[in-house]
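Researcher: Next entry: Beta-mannosidase B (Anaerolinea thermolimosa).
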Amino acid sequence: MKSQSLSSASQVVWTFRQAGTDEWMPATVPGGVHTDLLALGRIPDPFVADNELKVQWVAEADWEYRGVFEASPGGRMFLVADGLDTLAEVYLNGQRLGETENMFRTYRWPVDGILRSGQNELRILFRSAVKYCLKRNAEKPLTPKTGMSLEGSVFVRKAPCHFGWDWGPKLPPIGIWRDLRLEQYASARLEDVHLRQQHRNGTVTLSAAVRAERWDNVHLVAHLKVTTPNGRRTYETHLPLEGNQGQLAVRIRNPQLWWPNGYGEQPLYDVEVSLEAEGTVQDRKQVKMGLRTVELVREPDAWGESFTFVVNGVPVFMKGSDWIPADSFPTRMSEAQYEHLIRSAAESHQNMLRIWGGGFYEDERFYDLCDRYGMLLWHDFMFACYIYPHDEPEFIENLRHEVNDNVRRLRHRACIALWCGNNEMEQGWADWGWTNPNDPLRVLEREAYEKFFYHTLPEWVHELDPDRPYWPSSASSNVPFQAPNSPERGDMHYWDVWHGRKPFTAYRQQFPRFMSEFGFQSLPPMETIATYADPEDWNMTSYIMEHHQRSGNGNGLMVAQMTDSFRLPKDFPSLSYLSMVLQAEGIRYGVEHWRRNKHRVSGTLYWQLNDCWPVASWSSIDYYGRWKALHYAAKRFYAPILLSIEDQGALMEVHVTSDLTEPWQGQVRWALQTLDGETLRSGEVAVSLAALQSAKVCSLDFQTEIEATLDRKREVIFVADLYQGEKHLATSVATFVPNKHLKLVEPGLNVQVSRSGKQAIFEVTAHSLARFVELKLAGADAIFSDNYFDVLPGRKVQVTCVLPQGWTLAQVKKALRVQSLYHSFA
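Model: Predicted structure:
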């Protein structure tokens, strides 16, 4: 098999134009109309100010792409498109090959007799998905109006969030968004390869079910070769095919198992399946595979039914977040940007991401990184929050191809733990007023929903990928329309703190079996705000700041919750800082509670990891890759050994939670002390944990001490430190009053800066309590080993960062910016 890329990087000359006009402009493939127009200076940057509104015409128009390329036809020739976005007609040398209606599908057209030797012309006409959706919605309105997304977007198989979401803009891309190529075969090709693994008694049987497409009667032989991760050993077998199908297998004794992040290594075996005819390779498929088992254990227990992921026989508490598309224009995503996000998740001890159903099936770079970093995936299919036309046979047939393409493409991946039908559609039917027995269309669609997500889709998935669990919806109890957010079974989305304006303490009243969504918003860092808002717009209720806030009264909700915890900030940069600290504190509060109860709760995925544009949102990493306070907090609250305090007025309970697969011993040293460091009462307690255990190690009542004087509770804090031997692992601080009522004074922060190799070292001290200390380097996006941390008087906190390229120590000292909670209002 030979493959010829038709991308711009392969010397193909691509141009594009608005349909009905004469001007052809240079284009980039893969790419899109918005990014091409932006590169040519024809539209303003839609991420700046309110420019999004000025470019709506782009998605409302039809567009045409033209590619001119050289070819040398021979054998069987196919044009293969991995991603056309979305409604397209494809012409080669003036002959119509077909049309597309699904950005998630791979389309393949035979081009024998059409492809010429020498120069060829490929033209692709894209029709406006926006106009199509509005037309279909006028004919058959399905979902109640929300204003969040384009009405009728459910009728086209395109990323739902492209039409707007409560964190994203309305900028539907249009164009050739994935690889486009010619494939050339002689006698046969591999139509399908299904790799499976069976684990038994320390041996893995790795099998390959092969299906070939052939064009003559030559004798075909399938080969399977598996090479160990270190390349030192190879397992091989071959099989003459009877007809077009066959199954091969090798046995791997003492396999190197693949583990989630934090539980072991991620060795990947090289697997090659090839197809030969008369000694000549006709086609081959090469992948990397991690050998592991994943089960979703759902068993009756004292609280209902468990929901625990078990990997290689070990129950794993899932620590993670929800993933959304990382750019509104996905072709702009580089491998370096993908790696930064996945590596950042791994560095914060996450072991699972949920691929949210309002985006798209990611490309191979993303899954490669998840395999490498041990990042398990809860993988939604691409349905979210709306009623889809599952009653239409043509729609179902389109979905069948979509599911077939993507499950077959991804089923060998070690990282994928579960297939999930959709995001929050079941909740819509159960709780959002979609159900209406007096509306025949609603009755029909409700029945169609149940048929598709409880019967049709799981049957497809089981046929294609029988070794992975399937879950109908997130959130769901696995019973159609019944208690999709049940605390007794299934997974939960808990939004009463954000949308319901409940305090963070409400998290402690929830005991889900698996928390797959919960979150709280923050502003991004000021460096990001400055990319879309001028200083005159740096106000929470300004037009531009509200334009970059898509969750209704989101800015107001942030400020309201902020006043519960903090004093009003002195300026807008302090507001940005406080919003991030508030977000981090809220999510920490919930995660620590659920990890303390890991015998009952089996995982937490906070909403959300990342952004698709610069915006106020629930993310822990902003659009430009900058870590917010939440991501630093996640590195602490997702640590393998977690120290946490359950504060109940004057009562302080100290807990230690272990994700280690072996016993752990250490000590907790605690103290009641004043803000300037005077110790009023202290103690030490030994900690001995079994593998994977969480335990309360002490309970302390300070009623007498905090009521000694009228203001005493404003002047003291409770501090717990976790040690293993003399190695200090963690510090946790709890207060007896909200942070806004603490009698904080100027902490006298001092930072000594030094250098060791390529690292800058910062030693931070204070003469009084400094809460949520933030370090920044002006002019550099530095990621520190820790940030937004507490500094206690008489102690030294050491953090590091990679020295910005080309910087001297003097430059670091000059660029260093330090602030704390006190400085946000004083």
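Model: Note for the record: The chain has a mean pLDDT of 97.
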